[in-house]
Amino acid sequence: MARSVEERRRRIVDIVAQEGPQNARRLATRLGVSAVTLRRDLEHLASVGSIRRRHGTVEPLGAPSIAGPDAPTIGLVLPESNYYYDGIIAGAKRAAGAAGAKLVLGVSDYRPEKEIHQAERLITKGVDGLVMAPTPDFATGWLVPSQEERLAQLRVPTVFVERTASPGGPCALLDTVNSAHDVGAAVGLRHLIQLGHRRITALMISGPNSPWVREGLLQASAHAGLEDPQIIMEGTPGSDEARAAVLQTIEDGTTAVFVHNDQLATRAILWLEDAGISIPDEVSLIGYDDVIAGMADVPLTALDPPKREVGRRAVERVLALCGGATSSAVSPADGGATQHIRLVPELHVRQSTTVPREPPRSSDCRR
Amino acid sequence: MARSVEERRRRIVDIVAQEGPQNARRLATRLGVSAVTLRRDLEHLASVGSIRRRHGTVEPLGAPSIAGPDAPTIGLVLPESNYYYDGIIAGAKRAAGAAGAKLVLGVSDYRPEKEIHQAERLITKGVDGLVMAPTPDFATGWLVPSQEERLAQLRVPTVFVERTASPGGPCALLDTVNSAHDVGAAVGLRHLIQLGHRRITALMISGPNSPWVREGLLQASAHAGLEDPQIIMEGTPGSDEARAAVLQTIEDGTTAVFVHNDQLATRAILWLEDAGISIPDEVSLIGYDDVIAGMADVPLTALDPPKREVGRRAVERVLALCGGATSSAVSPADGGATQHIRLVPELHVRQSTTVPREPPRSSDCRR
């Protein structure tokens, strides 16, 4: 009996070391012992420092289970894995591949609690560094102070992507790689202004980077001496709630609509088509993100944030911070200071933007 | 006579090609001809495209005079060459040296007209790219829109250092390398807060980056749930105008003074010493820039913006944009997007900061 207990306990340590954190109840079933017996084993193993118990799971201490001795492993904690983040992941993979590193993905579904949990889970599993896009307050674009305090205490080198830490908070000491969404939006608005548009509507989702996009729109119109563009929010994501408001601004004289993002722009195309409004002859339309903009039935002029480059540079940087950079892709000249890198989106002009329609002659207004 | 005219004209072309732009009047003196004769020569030479005349100077057209075929030349247009910019220049030199490039310096004395003139002069002389610190509005930290329009039209790759272009303006499409002065100021304020200081005065110069320093101070105190620090401006640079105001805040209960910049901090040390106030026992003092902070009689805790790294990376980047990068110091992995890089200053803790003095017992207040 004494020998069997010892064997079982050694097996528990082996399982968590080789397979990572285990659910305690399932582990009891697997070992064919009662929950009480397993709890006693775990209490003993935790007391001698062989494992760690947390929230009903058994976690390894000591040697990481997912990272080999030569291959650094980077955890990637993103709000989702599709649409925009697909590009981030592609760039991250390229950098990891070039450095012989491994990537592990955790998805947070835009929930701050979940992203902290994912980060801690990956650290427990032995990742050498993290690349994260934590979820800010969508109204302000800033992370919440309590969230910053927790993120600043993660125990491995961490680089944020597509997120701005408050300059006055502790996360400002973490490296960031961002698309400069304010500049991107301004470039888009300037394109419309240079075509001759003066009355522009902005149709916007509510997302983590919407405040920066809005800020860029306001700055560019102020810079051009125009009134602020009229801003219409999408409402419930994926809904047609904004449809009537957009059509009304066009009736009132708007000649161009800036849409953040592409997904919403493809909806707006339908709204306009259904209302018999031709793109771009009657209304110019410009998209943002450039994930699906080129595939719309009227290929959309759009701003293309450098998603792949953001993902690539974030992984290169976190590898350098981990000391795991062996590839020449990581510049040996990068110094020690915390880096906040912003990369400016590119404008891709396609078929959805042109010079504004002639304004109706004043006599037409009364017909 | 005809032959002598031809010879003289060939000599004029040679002089401007070899020595760069020439003042027309001095050129006439040098050639021993009258102003009228020289003007006729210049009119002829300009009409056949051998030289260009502008604002009383004669400029070369054609082959650059300062750049050899293999050595790219970078113009460095800075407001001054001493104090802070000494570090920028040192970093720029290192990067240029590593790439076999040449640097040419132009100083603007913080005058926007002069910096545009310096930039255009260097371009005329054949520089392949520019690194500039244009002079913003000291009250806002932003470049003036008309100035941005001109800077955005410079005809060679240009990288700004220590300057932020408005996201809504045309210069946002230029690369920038900056110290994150807002984050640096916040790190300094947090150091004081962590020591236990609650009543903090900020003593500030009026300079191109002062608005960002102020912003960081306000953000950090808001983040810590404190009232805004009291901000005292220096007044006339180099004066003692702020002295009485600073001493008054200390009498009123301030236990720490954040000083932007070092030069002003060394003055403040004298003010406190003369008033019999001991640093750091009675008042903690923290400097900014870390150029001379370590040499003060009480060695100052100070924020150190990564001046050398800013200069180095700006030159590396402009060389990459010129296509003149041959050194491995320029990462081949840098992509094509415009980059805005912010590097976070480091805190160097020395002897001028400590825990706050005991507050006077309430009974003491009435003595």
UniProtKB/TrEMBL annotation, chains A, B:
Keyword Transmembrane annotated:
no
What residue ranges carry the coiled-coil annotation? none
Every copy of the HTH deoR-type domain together lies at: 5-60
Is DNA-binding found in the keyword set?
A: yes
Position of the signal peptide: none
Q: Which Gene3D superfamilies match?
A: 3.40.50.2300, Winged helix-like DNA-binding domain superfamily/Winged helix DNA-binding domain
User: What keywords appear on the UniProt entry?
Assistant: DNA-binding, Transcription, Transcription regulation
Q: Which PANTHER family match?
A: ALANINE RACEMASE, LACI-RELATED TRANSCRIPTIONAL REPRESSOR
Q: What is this protein called?
A: Substrate-binding domain-containing protein
